[in-house]
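Progress note, sequence design subtask.
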């Protein structure tokens, strides 16, 4: 096949030109498209550099000061730095920065607080929850007895009277709050009260909103949750990794569950990149960024509503918008693939009470973290909404020429907003 010209990675190009060319192609794709997937972002050059250091060469099973390998003098300091920054940024008593990703982090929570067959509780996947919150196809739903809550059909909002009734009836060992398609503010205080009444450990999964919490654009779960689970990418703009944070009383159980319970040696290069991202998130400019993400999402939601789109819960409080395309007479999957051809990257997504199958759902999910990282503001959201409207219309009619026009317009705008971490 014909490969594009590789990017400026001389050692990689010399060693493996085929792979280098694919990296270069991805760099250009990320540069000239409008990335609206709410779980994606651009990391800084500093985070990229930390991810590619010689820390890759080290094995470090255990924890700082308690390793099973010698030669950890520098690695211990890297991990301690990441831990200290996490504790300071989020105001927590304990932090574990070793989980490889969000799902393993959540698995560690179950290992720490539940036994196989115990009842656990979380938001149902079709309602906006995550697979690892006890959904049936996940190990968490196969190894534990998962019970799920949802949202009201008329409002798209969580009914806490129903959540409390379910929790008191089922008495779960663990309750998860948070999810992957929740456009509204999570009421951690209400969940905390219910968990205490039910005698459950409350886990706030803030993977999507960790950056908003760090930047003061979303309330913190720290006063209410026993454990906080988060990825370090998404709105936090770090590497693909995860953290578990908790009250000190749970520190030993959490650490033991991560290692040796689930994992071997941590990925030290990722730990370093997490430390960099946490340092960046502690700067005043990051607070501006977090609030801009929300402002952009709200502005985009208003523009979409004005164009007749059906938004789950009627809008957004955070970085994420979930759209039901049923009134537009086009399935979510067809719309998402057409928008991709138009240079607008989204994901098709189930909406609450969706009559369609998960792999061919009614909705699409979009978000503003990436475009905000590039410097787009509320003044640009009308153009974004216009492209989405035109793209969905073209998807319905099969108008590929219209999609091509949109792609050229998107590329032209994005050329004026260089992306962090990408070659100039």
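Output:
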């Amino acid at each position: 096949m014909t490969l594009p010209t590789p990017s400026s990675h001389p050692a990689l190009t010399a060693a493996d030109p085929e792979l280098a060319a694919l990296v270069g192609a991805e760099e250009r794709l990320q540069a000239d498209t409008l990335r609206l997937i709410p779980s994606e972002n651009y990391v800084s050059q500093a985070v990229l550099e930390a991810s590619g250091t010689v820390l890759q060469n080290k094995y470090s099973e255990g924890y700082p000061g308690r390793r099973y390998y010698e030669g950890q003098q520098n690695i211990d300091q890297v991990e301690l730095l990441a831990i200290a920054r996490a504790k300071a940024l989020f105001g927590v008593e304990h932090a574990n920065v070793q989980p490889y990703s969000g799902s393993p982090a959540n698995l560690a929570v179950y290992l720490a607080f539940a036994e196989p067959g115990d009842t656990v509780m979380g938001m149902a996947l079709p309602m906006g929850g995550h697979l690892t919150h006890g959904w049936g196809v996940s190990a968490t739903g196969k190894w534990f007895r998962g019970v799920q809550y949802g949202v009201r059909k008329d409002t798209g909002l969580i009914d806490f009277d129903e959540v409390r009734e379910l929790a008191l009836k089922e008495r779960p060992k663990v309750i998860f709050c948070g999810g992957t398609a929740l456009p509204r503010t999570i009421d951690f205080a209400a969940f905390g009260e219910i968990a205490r009444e039910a005698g459950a450990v409350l886990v706030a999964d803030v993977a999507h909103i960790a950056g908003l919490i760090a930047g003061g654009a979303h309330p913190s779960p720290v006063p209410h949750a026993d454990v906080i689970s988060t990825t370090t990418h998404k709105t936090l703009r770090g590497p693909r990794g995860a953290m578990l944070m908790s009250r000190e009383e749970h520190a030993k159980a959490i650490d033991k569950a991560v290692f040796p319970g689930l994992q071997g040696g941590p990925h030290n290069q990722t730990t370093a990149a997490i430390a960099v991202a946490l340092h960046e998130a502690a700067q005043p400019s990051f607070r501006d960024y977090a609030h801009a993400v929300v402002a952009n999402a709200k502005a985009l939601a208003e523009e979409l509503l004005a164009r007749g789109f059906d938004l789950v819960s009627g809008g957004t409080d955070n970085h994420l918008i979930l759209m039901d395309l049923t009134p537009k007479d086009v399935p979510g999957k067809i719309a998402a693939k057409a928008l991709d051809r138009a240079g607008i990257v989204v994901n098709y997504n189930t909406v609450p009470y969706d009559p369609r199958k998960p792999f061919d759902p009614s909705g699409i999910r979009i978000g503003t973290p990436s475009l905000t990282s590039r410097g787009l503001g509320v003044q640009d959201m009308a153009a974004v909404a216009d492209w989405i409207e035109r793209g969905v219309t073209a998807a319905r009619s099969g108008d590929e020429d219209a999609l091509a026009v949109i792609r050229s317009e998107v590329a032209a705008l994005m050329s004026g907003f260089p992306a962090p971490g990408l070659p100039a």
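The radius of gyration is 22 Å. Work on this subtask will continue into the next period as scheduled.
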